Amino acid sequence: GRAEQQQGHFDRARSIFQQATDKHCANNVHIWQAWAVLESKCGNVSRARELFEAALSLDNHNAYVCHAWGLLEQRHGNFDLARKLYLTAFSKRPQAQVCVALGEMEYQTGSIENARQVLELGCEVCRSGVADILVAWAAIEEQVAASAA
């Protein structure tokens, strides 16, 4: 499915994902997530949400699914749900990408102090990617300073 998706063969990729979930890999959370991401990229938001829900029904705290779904919800302005998904992902598997996404979203929604707290926590608990967190944090502080000037 992913190879077809990368080549722009979205209908073929959908067909492969459908076959995989129908016949071979119905319990594979990664297949469901990959399919959800495809639908999200194609603009099929409601279908993507259904597929993310299916993935979480198999593993209700999967950090990768929560992160990917959080990105979708953030793009569509559903910040409360995105926050919940990011926090679930971060609590299960503290990763810099999730921390940065949550910190940037907090800044985007006007919660500068929350953004700082999230990024500081990420620097303390993430085993790798701290440089990415610091770069994101510096960019936020630069924007805060520019808007105050």
Automatic annotation (TrEMBL):
<dbReference type="GO" id="GO:0005634">
    <property type="term" value="C:nucleus"/>
</dbReference>
<dbReference type="InterPro" id="IPR044624">
    <property type="entry name" value="Mbb1-like"/>
</dbReference>
<dbReference type="InterPro" id="IPR055430">
    <property type="entry name" value="HAT_Syf1_CNRKL1_C"/>
</dbReference>
<dbReference type="GO" id="GO:0003729">
    <property type="term" value="F:mRNA binding"/>
</dbReference>
<dbReference type="Pfam" id="PF23231">
    <property type="entry name" value="HAT_Syf1_CNRKL1_C"/>
</dbReference>
<protein>
    <recommendedName>
        <fullName>Pre-mRNA-splicing factor Syf1/CRNKL1-like C-terminal HAT-repeats domain-containing protein</fullName>
    </recommendedName>
</protein>
<dbReference type="InterPro" id="IPR003107">
    <property type="entry name" value="HAT"/>
</dbReference>
<keyword id="KW-0677">Repeat</keyword>
<dbReference type="InterPro" id="IPR011990">
    <property type="entry name" value="TPR-like_helical_dom_sf"/>
</dbReference>
<feature type="domain" description="Pre-mRNA-splicing factor Syf1/CRNKL1-like C-terminal HAT-repeats">
    <location>
        <begin position="8"/>
        <end position="130"/>
    </location>
</feature>
<dbReference type="GO" id="GO:0006397">
    <property type="term" value="P:mRNA processing"/>
</dbReference>
<keyword id="KW-0539">Nucleus</keyword>
